[in-house]
Design a protein that fits this description.
about 180 residues; mainly alpha; 7 helices
Length: about 180
């Protein structure tokens, strides 16, 4: 049971940190913030132009709402479910952009020079799997708070995983993994 608590905590921490970074990157002040993200969503051509602006504004709202659901003990299952749905939609949109040959940079966590590609689709697919895994673990975990050591290990593991996700483009550039 301790391993389940550690794993569920790690997945919650991973997703909360990733969504928090995504919201922060989109809501930053200046032209690279929400205005830049809104233009970027419109340039992808995934949605009809009339839906691009509402979708751009709905994205950080959904990400923030999902993070809050994951943080609250009584809404964690809903948070994992929302995270899985949102991340699956991101994976599909990213795959569509890549498949159409659109050379759009990744603006998932704010401005970037990295072009959307298979690694971003894989990242979103793996995060979707993490959310589904968290939902499954949540149903297996014993009710109540995790013991302090399990909580600490889970939070540390989730933070390390989040760093790997947030710096994916830098890591692939460092090792020339394209």
């Amino acid at each position: 049971m301790v391993l389940i608590q550690i794993s569920a905590t790690a997945l919650r921490a991973l997703l909360v940190l990733v969504f928090a970074a995504a919201v922060s990157g989109k809501l930053r002040p200046g032209p690279d913030g929400m205005a830049g993200f809104t233009r970027w969503v419109g340039s992808l051509g995934v949605l009809p132009s009339r839906l691009s602006r509402p979708a751009a504004y709905a994205t950080p709202a959904a990400e923030a709402g999902t993070a809050v659901l994951l943080l609250l003990p009584w809404t964690q299952a809903a948070g994992f479910g929302c995270a899985a749905a949102l991340l699956a939609a991101f994976a599909i949109a990213t795959w569509t952009v890549h498949r159409r040959g659109i050379e759009a940079t990744c603006r998932c966590f704010g401005p970037s020079t990295a072009v959307l590609g298979p690694r971003h689709v894989a990242r979103d697919a793996l995060l979707t799997a993490a959310a589904l895994g968290g939902l499954a673990l949540r149903t297996l975990a014993t009710p109540g708070p995790a013991a302090a050591p399990a909580l600490a290990v889970g939070l540390a593991a989730g933070a390390l995983l989040a760093l790997a996700v947030l710096f994916l483009d830098d890591i692939t550039a460092l090792f020339d993994l394209g």
